[in-house]
């Protein structure tokens, strides 16, 4: 960190040039940016092995260094045949580089990631979720924090595509969801240009920069007999993807608690210990003191065993959320004072217990995975205020 005097000296030295550039600069043929039309994509012939193709894509920054499937014309056309969308439609101008993501480019990146034509609706819905301003993609892709895209899949598509919602749901040997996780980062890094060291400024980075986390809902094991899709307002016949851009998750490996309240207490601690809990806080319930740059939720990915234990004492998700709201508190001294200033009438001292959240819906619950008392607590990125949910359209008819 440099001193205020050094900052002022740098500003003074640069100020005249900034004013001159702002007032006197004019475009010319030499400095005019020329951008090719986003559609149709250029085609070219390449002779070589798969290894040669991958080296060429990596050299040109068309991939992330992981192996890709070569996006041949026939494979891309097969993907496009699975949608009625215009291949030249621009779905998103992807920050920070502002590359244009067309439907054709979605198909191309889908091929590269290992997706099949029938997965095109999943890719399009995911791209639409990423493009939603509430995903805060620009911030999450340029922050110094090691952020991770987290995608949830819910609804009839789970059974239709035979997606793994049980053991290892977000791990290897899941070709559809792994392709989807790889696709997310190809869009963000290849089209959006957020690659180190230029625009991606993550201090350490993470494996999530290669393949995003994708969880599939285990609706059969949900003791509350609901789905995340339904909570997000989808109709029973609709399937959805829900995107969170998160800080790295914390594992909850509570094997000891036999009561729902005891287990929820450890989850409440997890929400406080994750990056979202340090630095900013929310409210006493009637007089919110909500910093404008804070977030309002925590994502709990519950394993079936933890969900079942909680449901014995809390027969509705709402009752569990209300308990978490009361339990997720910590002393004022653990918050950053400049971002958490309670009302004067609270007379808050260093040890005054303050609630982290203001609304029971701040705790979003998603049941996923198989046997084992292992769950996750994810703290969404600072600018994220809610999940971004999109209905998956144009799904092929169920067989």
Short description:
By secondary structure, this protein is α+β, with helices and mostly antiparallel strands. It has twelve helices and 14 strands.
Keywords:
4-stranded mixed β-sheet, 399 residues, 12 helices, 15% strand, alpha+beta, 2 domains
Write a structural description.
With 399 residues, this protein is an alpha+beta fold. The protein folds into two domains: 50-248 and 386-391, no CATH class; 250-378, no CATH class. The protein is 32% helix and 15% strand. The protein contains twelve helices and 14 strands. It has a four-stranded mixed sheet with strand order 4-3-5-14, covered by helices on one side. A four-stranded mixed sheet has the order 6-13-9-12. The chain has a two-stranded antiparallel sheet with strand order 1-2. α3 (73-80) crosses α4, α4 packs across α8 (175-191) and α5 (120-131) packs across α8 (175-191). The radius of gyration is 23 Å and the shape is globular.
Tell me the major beta sheet.
4 strands, mixed
The helical percent reads 25-40%
Query: Which class do the helix and strand fractions yield?
Result: alpha+beta
Proportion of residues in β-strands: 5-15%
Number of domains: 2
In terms of topology, how is this protein built?
Layout: H1 4-24, H2 50-59, H3 73-80, E1 90-94, E2 99-102, H4 103-113, H5 120-131, H6 137-142, E3 148-154, H7 157-160, H8 175-191, E4 213-216, H9 228-231, E5 240-246, E6 250-252, H10 260-273, E7 283-284, E8 287-288, E9 298-302, H11 304-313, H12 317-327, E10 329-331, E11 353-355, E12 363-367, E13 375-378, E14 388-391
Parallel strand pairs: 3-4, 9-12
Antiparallel strand pairs: 1-2, 3-5, 5-14, 6-13, 7-8, 9-13, 10-11
Helix pairs in contact: 3-4, 4-5, 4-8, 5-8, 10-11, 10-12
